[in-house]
Amino acid sequence: MSSQRPGRFARTLFGVACVMLALTGCADTTPTVVTGRAVSMLYNPGRVGGLPTAEGPSGPRGDVPPVTARVGNSDGGEIDRLSLFAIDDIEEFWTQHYADSLRGRFEPVSTLMSYASTDPNSPQVCGGDVYHLPNAMYCRRADTMAWDRAKFMPAARKYFGDMAINGTLAHEYGHALQAMAHIVNPLTRTLVREQQADCFAGVYLQWVAAGKSSRATLSTGDGLNHVLAGLIVIRDPVSTLDNPVSISDEHGTALDRVGAFQTGFDGGAEMCAAIDMDEIRKRRGNLPHALFDSENPQSDLTIDEHVLSTLMEQLGQIFALSRPPALATTGKCPSGHEPDPVAYCPESNTVVVDLAGLQEMSAPTDQSTLSLPQGDNTGLSAVTSRYALAVQREREVGLESAAAALRTACLTGVAQRRMAEPMRLPSGPGLTLAGGDLDEAITGLLMNGVVASDADDNTVPAGFTRILAFRSGLHGDVDGCFERFR
């Protein structure tokens, strides 16, 4: 995250979104719909999961009460106060709504524990040592929920706001719900368990975003963006040549995790209970397995003029335009529009790139820390999105609207799907996406919105909707993007 410069965030089409790395100081704004519409309500730029897209505060509604004796080993500090506050809210929701969709009876988790992963004298949790184990967890046999108050929760809160605590614990509570409803068994794969838990977190947070919680609030713009960012951070680590990893318990990629969360946010708990490997495969669609293979080593390219030229040639083959755009790595548009770090100039049909800025956007982050997955495809997907505007120009549709922004994300997804398999170009091999590359594109969609922005660099405020549009392109085609967003 440190390599994303302040100010490199696309303007929104519905007022000003305070897109920062902490949830503070966002003023409430009233959405103003611009020209253009998305055909499906699912892709409506003015709504998220049936709720209006709006900015506003996210976090506790008022003072957070002291920690009660219910939390074992607590230091009584702010993290434990926020954690218990979140659990009380989560339990209120499921007390009211569990019976609506799930079998059995809701029972609050019997034991809550706080621990410090920095303390070698911390008591065991669920029968195991938690020294140097920054995490949050639910243990089924002991019916215990625990969290690290020293490193994990403070870091999540620092980077993703107070509601990251609610999101984390809502996910862990999802594992408790699985046990209550008997929707998993000892043979259920970890991936299914984790996807269900992500989905249950989405169900609860939709309730909060709808304004029904008496304790917490969540904006459907920046607030939800940061919750999704926190979810992405706990994706499966990706193997690299310098740091090979072996994953015995697959939790899912960023696309998997966001998709499961969206299923719950949009559809409800009954859809979470229905998640199994068949549902996950269906959601992944016809995307190559390599995109979900975290153990397949990948390396990040240094983006230079040669890489960009290869990308432009490859996009020319994918979209087959009669008037493909030119590439410029210096200067600005004739209109004065400057790349930040990319721009499309309709008047000259040129994609302009600030090469140094694009390299900074594409600098790999350290996945051993709480960093969003950034790398070469964060930048390459942004360039692809400017090419997508040239595709729209050739079809003679408007380039300055919410529909254009979402159509751009969709067309970028179409191109990325094609790039997931090796392509041979007249000049040589093309660029091929590998495991982790889609995660890097998702980061850009969520945190700066360039891939889902129109020709004026305007995006829609909800990263939730940007990702949906991108995913529709991954599983669709060019004509589908024009039909869906018009």
TrEMBL record:
The answer to whether UniProt assigns keyword Signal to this entry is yes
Q: Which Pfam families match?
A: Zn_peptidase (PF04228)
Q: Which residues form the signal peptide?
A: 1-27
Keywords in alphabetical order, please: Lipoprotein, Signal
Superkingdom as given in the UniProt entry: Bacteria
Entry protein name: Lipoprotein peptidase LpqM
Q: What is the lineage of its organism?
A: Bacteria, Bacillati, Actinomycetota, Actinomycetes, Mycobacteriales
What gene, per UniProt, encodes this protein? lpqM
